[in-house]
Every structure is written in C-alpha cells, then in structure tokens.
Amino acid sequence: MLRGYYTAASGMLSQQRRQEVLSNNMSNVLTPGYKAEQTTVRAFPEMLIERMESHKLPVKNSGHIPFSSRIGALNTGAYVHETLPTFTQGSLRETGFSTDFAIINGELPDENGYLFFTVENEDGTLRYTRNGNFTVDSEGFLVTSHGHYVLDENGERIQTGSEEFAVNSSGVIELGDGTTANLGIAYYLDQSNFVHEGNSLFRFEPDTPLNARAQNFPFQITQAGNNLAIENGELPDENGGLFFALQNEEGEIQYTQNADFVVDEDGFLTNGAGFYVLNERGGRIQADAGYTVDENGVIQSGDDEVNLAVVYHPNMDELDQAGAFWQHAEPEDARAIGEGVPFQIKQGYLEQSNVNPERTMTEMLRTYRLFEMNQQVLKAYDKSMDLAVNRIAQLR
C-alpha cells in the first residue's frame, strides 16, 4: 500500500518541477537570447511482482516444489533527472541601436555545437550569452545590461568610448580612434556542458571524471620499479580514457597515464614534478619507499592498504595535454572566429527567445493535468488507508 503513496508523490514532485521550468520559460518569452529549458524525467527501477506458492510442481515420491507465478512489473515512480537548455536559433528583431548584436549561426561543424558572446563575470571568470543587448558604461566599456564586460577574442574588455561605432558581419568592431577589436565569439562542441545561471548567462562545466573501480571499468595497473602505467580494458566510449589523478601545488587536479611515482621527504607519494598522487577519495597518499601496487591499483605500504585513484574521463577532447599531463580545458580554449566556424553578426538586431509560447502553454496545461491525476491517486490511497485503520481494524 505504501508503495502507491511514494509512486504518486514522486509523480507529483516531478510534474511540479516541470511546471516550474515551463513557467520560467513562459516568463522569459520576451528576454533576448533566452534559451528554453526542458526537463528529462526518468523512472525509478521497476520491481518484478510474483505470486508466491500459487502453483506447485510435482516431483518424485509424491512431493511438490512451490512455484511462483509472475504477475508483472511494478513501477516505483519517476523523478526529474536534469534540466537542459535548448540551443536553437531564435528569430531576429530589428532595434536600430548600435549596441545591439545578434549572432546568426552558419552551418556549424557539429550538430551539438553552439556559438556565444564571451563576457566577464563579477569575479573575473568567463560566462557565455546569446543576449546581445549591450550598452556602453560610464568608462566607455561595452557591457551587458547587467554590467558584465563584453570581451574580445583575446579575453580583453572592449572600450568603444561611445555608442558611435560599427560592427561588420565578421564581428570586427571599428572604434572611433581608427583601431579595431574582434568580438570574442566562442564555439563549443557539446551543449550539454553548459549550465544556465540566469540573466541569459551560461557557464561551462566539463564532464566529471568517474571512479573507474566503482563503475567496474576494466583496467590493469603495471609496476616497474617506481613507474606505474594503466592498461585499459574495453571502455564504454571510444573517446574515453583512464588516468591517475594528481594534485598540483595550487590544488588543481591533473591526470596522467604513465609516471614515475616517488615518496617525498614528508612521506607523500608524488610524481617527478612534485604533484601529489591521490587516492580514490581524493586524499593524498602516504607511503614508505618500498611500497608496491598490485594490478587492481591497491597500494601496499607496510601493513596499510589504500586504493589508488583511477578515474575515467568520458571525453578526452575536453582535456588539454601538456607533456605527460592532462587537465580540463579552460573555457578560453574554445574554438573561436577564424577557425572554420561560420557565423554572422548583425548590428542593430537582437536574437529573440526561442520559447514557443503556444507549445509551452499546452505543456503547462498537460503538466497540470498530470499533477492533478497523481493527486487523485494519492487521495484514493489515503482514503483506503483511512478505511483500513478506522473500520476494518475495529474489533467487534
């Protein structure tokens, strides 16, 4: 009986979350450059229901073996797995203002790729937007409507001095003093790595490496003296790779597949460059000079054992290689203008939101009905429980 409560309640919660996302889309119909968000709903694992001992199979000596008959699968509810923006080109609206820009996508090299204006956040980090509703601040810098600096292709702020400037279709700004600046147009191959922060801003988040041991990915560690190497098994993605995890002096995580690991003067396992080798919990490893590592990555040092961190990254294209090391590619390393990515800049235009109001309203009504249906189911279970407690269980 209680399973029904949880199933209906999870349905209500998932529809409530969908309604929140749809309402937010609807409220941003007129926001330039806004990208509609959509939710992905997943079901919890199904349970196989069987009727125990409903049949008996005859055996020798007049005996019987209890036999269960299958009833079917029981769904245990659903949940909102993630919310993702929909990166499709919005329609253009002419404004006539020189500080309004719109990006028109050409035939991009990858169907999952997308183009953005690059802006600087309050803390100096990079953010990305399709909202070209810019203005010029009191110091003559080109900024967004929320005060974020618009950057050129070198990551520098663009100082136009006034609103009297022109931008050609290639994104080259002709400044009043006769100089030029190229708009920082960034291109990324995978839209799924962008997280919507509000105000039509997105931040880039690379894929998170997975614990290869916990995921049961096949690998083997070989040791030759202080040298450790990973031999990959059959990985789930041809672009993926297995790595040892290291931590540099700044605390940044880097990766390597083959290295000489030594014990430093403080007793920590490091590589030749002084980077700390990490265990699977992300901590530094202390070991004796005579440590050994088995093929499963278990380090034996005296009586202590610790699991070496072996991580799987699903997309090595997102990693920058520097010698024998890899690290997450910084956002400024995105492909930009001049690298075979076709686009066009329209000055005096704004890209409109790609929200379809009619479709969104229809989805909102449908979501409301689904929420209401789950609510009725929950009420029915509640009524049944009330009968069970207050009537059936009464002693007469």
TrEMBL record:
<keyword id="KW-0969">Cilium</keyword>
<keyword id="KW-0975">Bacterial flagellum</keyword>
<feature type="domain" description="Flagellar hook protein FlgE/F/G-like D1">
    <location>
        <begin position="240"/>
        <end position="299"/>
    </location>
</feature>
<keyword id="KW-0966">Cell projection</keyword>
<dbReference type="GO" id="GO:0071978">
    <property type="term" value="P:bacterial-type flagellum-dependent swarming motility"/>
</dbReference>
<dbReference type="InterPro" id="IPR037925">
    <property type="entry name" value="FlgE/F/G-like"/>
</dbReference>
<dbReference type="InterPro" id="IPR020013">
    <property type="entry name" value="Flagellar_FlgE/F/G"/>
</dbReference>
<feature type="domain" description="Flagellar basal-body/hook protein C-terminal">
    <location>
        <begin position="346"/>
        <end position="388"/>
    </location>
</feature>
<feature type="domain" description="Flagellar hook protein FlgE/F/G-like D1">
    <location>
        <begin position="113"/>
        <end position="174"/>
    </location>
</feature>
<comment type="similarity">
    <text>Belongs to the flagella basal body rod proteins family.</text>
</comment>
<feature type="domain" description="Flagellar basal body rod protein N-terminal">
    <location>
        <begin position="6"/>
        <end position="35"/>
    </location>
</feature>
<dbReference type="Pfam" id="PF06429">
    <property type="entry name" value="Flg_bbr_C"/>
</dbReference>
<dbReference type="Pfam" id="PF22692">
    <property type="entry name" value="LlgE_F_G_D1"/>
</dbReference>
<dbReference type="GO" id="GO:0009425">
    <property type="term" value="C:bacterial-type flagellum basal body"/>
</dbReference>
<protein>
    <submittedName>
        <fullName>Flagellar hook-basal body protein</fullName>
    </submittedName>
</protein>
<dbReference type="InterPro" id="IPR010930">
    <property type="entry name" value="Flg_bb/hook_C_dom"/>
</dbReference>
<dbReference type="Pfam" id="PF00460">
    <property type="entry name" value="Flg_bb_rod"/>
</dbReference>
<keyword id="KW-0282">Flagellum</keyword>
<dbReference type="InterPro" id="IPR053967">
    <property type="entry name" value="LlgE_F_G-like_D1"/>
</dbReference>
<dbReference type="InterPro" id="IPR001444">
    <property type="entry name" value="Flag_bb_rod_N"/>
</dbReference>
